[in-house]
Amino acid sequence: MAIKIDSKLTPTKLVPAVERMWDLSGKKILSIEKNWKPSQGTPVFTVRGKYATRGWTEWTQGFQYGAAVLQYDATNQKPFLKIGRDQTVQRMATHVSHIGVHDHGFNNVSTYGNLLRLMREKRIPQNEFEQNFYELALKVSGAVQASRWTTIANGGGFVHSFNGPHSLFIDTIRSMRALGVAHRLGHVLMAENDKPISLLKRLVEHAQSTADYGVYYGEGRDAYDVRGRTAHESVFNVKDGNYRCPNSQQGYAPFSTWTRGLAWAICGYAEQLEFLKTISDKELQPLGGRKQIEAMMLKAAEATSDFYLKNTCTDGIPMWDTGAPNLHRLGDYLDHPSDPYNDWEPVDSSAAAIAAQGLIRLGNYLKSKGKKQAAKQYVQAGLTVTASLLEEPYLSTNDKHQGLLLHSIYHRPNNWDHIPRGKKIPCGESSMWGDYHMRELALLVYRLAKKQPYLTFFGCLD
């Protein structure tokens, strides 16, 4: 059965729930700001309701401070702007020049990008030096991200993950926002012998490689080729650039679908389709042309979105992996609302928050192309998921719990997620990325309801 789409939901109807969320959100941001010691590292996920760190790769600090900026955006409460501004200046510089991660679009667009967007929207005072500071950070971030490049056998390539040059992560499609912003700011990556490298070219080539190897289309690629499913990792031979196999770091198996990776693809391709509207035909022509590039991205966005809608519970919340080994013990779980407290397999609310935003964006993109029927399905599906997340058991209403969105999963195979006493699986906890994307989703819906400027990662360039 999968998701039961509410065709009557509108952004306006969700405003009371969104405003309730912002009230809860502010208290949680202040709690983290008051109690977290930077010497501990970066907060990643909660354990018994308190944020804890987990050393793996530094990809969540931008969500911590970006959340405060989004809180100010939604509420106009200046203490949150001060937190976001001050902490971005004090803590985020190493993320701008971090050569070891594929997460620049997460860390830096969520902080410097949101602050620049607020200035461009005249929501904070215009200051030329401050604006130049944000722009320089975004330019450098995009170039550093683009420098993590692996060339493959077909002449294209990809921004490789922190695992190494052989590794293409599905997640990174959403980090391409860093390259997009830097390109629009007029920046290029300078290589040996002063060779300029186009950031737009690398963005498009990465999107193409991800679409070719990370997304399935039911075209007979292998025995597990189901349209719309994704592989978390695509592995290449770095000696000759040939593709070797799918893999999964955080999902159950290479031939199952880790749903947060699926969600990154939905959201990443949808917002890149929006971004392409700001790029001229002249710039796109040497890269294959607008028609070809948009068709590639739309094919990936629609396939992954359709797979998501078929593989969620009726409330739009997915299990953490569509091939998780104990799903069969849940019976016809897709015919019922999700149960995060079940005994067999966790759900992942963070995947739902990311996917919901992508579904709404894809629908709005299709609407702009005159495809009203398909557009409505995706928008209404996104709003349906949003409505589920804005209510218990997913919205954290306990002021003593520092998390905002409950039942997020980080790394199930590594057993990193907290399992409460008396339970058999992880549940009841939050993550920095889940909380941030819940806020970003809520802000998108709120702005749609209030007919405010449409929220985009490239709004900082308008």
Characterization of the model:
- This protein has 462 residues and is mainly α.
- The protein has a single domain (12-461), classed as Glycosyltransferase (Alpha/alpha barrel), CATH 1.50.10.
- 47% of the residues lie in helices and 6% in strands.
- The chain has 16 helices and nine strands.
- It has helices at residues 15-35, 61-75, 78-91, 93-96, 104-107, 109-120, 128-146, 172-175, 177-184, 199-214, 259-276, 281-284, 290-310, 349-368, 372-389, 432-450; strands at residues 45-47, 50-52, 149-151, 157-159, 167-169, 189-191, 195-197, 233-236, 243-247.
- It has a three-stranded antiparallel β-sheet with strand order 5-8-9, covered by helices on one side. The chain has a two-stranded antiparallel ribbon with strand order 1-2. Strands 3-4 form a two-stranded antiparallel sheet.
- Helix 2 (61-75) runs parallel beside helix 6 and helix 6 runs antiparallel to helix 7 (128-146).
- The radius of gyration is 20 Å and the shape is globular.
- The mean pLDDT is 97.
Largest sheet: 3 strands, antiparallel
The number of helical runs is: 16
Q: What are the secondary-structure elements, in order, as H or E?
A: HEEHHHHHHEEEHHEEHEEHHHHHH
Number of strands: 9
CATH class reads: Mainly Alpha
How do the strands and helices of this protein lay out in sequence?
Layout: H1 15-35, E1 45-47, E2 50-52, H2 61-75, H3 78-91, H4 93-96, H5 104-107, H6 109-120, H7 128-146, E3 149-151, E4 157-159, E5 167-169, H8 172-175, H9 177-184, E6 189-191, E7 195-197, H10 199-214, E8 233-236, E9 243-247, H11 259-276, H12 281-284, H13 290-310, H14 349-368, H15 372-389, H16 432-450
Antiparallel strand pairs: 1-2, 3-4, 5-8, 6-7, 8-9
